[in-house]
Amino acid sequence: MSNTAFSTLALPAALLGNLADLGYSSMTDIQAQALPEILAGKDVIARAKTGSGKTAAFGLGLLAKLDVKYFRVQSLVLCPTRELADQVAAELRKLARSIHNIKILTLCGGVPIGPQIGSLEHGAHIIVGTPGRVIDHLEKGRLSLVDLTTLVLDEADRMLEMGFSADLDAVIAKAPAQRQTLLFSATYPDAIAKLSERLLTAPVQITVEQQH
Ligand code: ADP
Ligand code: MG
């Protein structure tokens, strides 16, 4: 059996220590396949079922790259719903517990915009949000992506099903062309293939079949 210890990865010691504290003793299949590519800076399309640990796959990638001393939005994670964005933010905060002063902000529709505007004035390293609300903040000039290094589309198939295609294109138009883009999806319909062609550069494709 291959070695799936997190310590085989080029992860900062603080992240490895925290993973041990969290009881994450070995990588899931999707993590073992995707993390080496993500840490190498590649664009990745990853397909795996729910509960396979996709959040830590992209989360450890963006946390490893993040410069906490540089207080600018360096990562954006787009999710189809507020519930999913809240789950992703909670998992990222768990994974980032050993990184002092890291600021992870959620920007979702269906909640009052006022507090979000206030939070944005204070700044953040990582934004997790739904496409409609994120584009709203971008268009009003309250959020800038000029320092973005990593863009994650989580549950991309559901975002397209929910009609977020135009919002995704609008977000991309405001993001630097030079960036790492990671696309996670449970299914891989034609629309996702087309979206990937628009958003990703020479992506590595990873599919993890049903685990038992
Ligand atoms: P997905 O996005 O693929 O549906 P999640 O990222 O939400 O899955 O992860 C599912 C659960 O597995 C979460 O509770 C998470 O904390 C846990 N988890 C993820 N990776 C590991 C790991 N390597 N070891 C132990 N638990 C893990
Ligand atoms: Mg998920």
From TrEMBL:
- Which part of the chain is the Helicase ATP-binding domain? 35-206
Q: Where on the tree of life does the source sit, at the highest rank?
A: Bacteria
Give the DEAD-box RNA helicase Q domain ranges: 4-32
Give the residue range of the signal peptide.
none
Q: Where is this motif: Q motif?
A: 4-32
Family per record? Belongs to the DEAD box helicase family.
Could you identify this protein by its name?
Answer: ATP-dependent RNA helicase DbpA
What lineage, starting at the top, does this entry show?
Answer: Bacteria, Pseudomonadati, Pseudomonadota, Gammaproteobacteria, Chromatiales
Name of the coding gene = dbpA
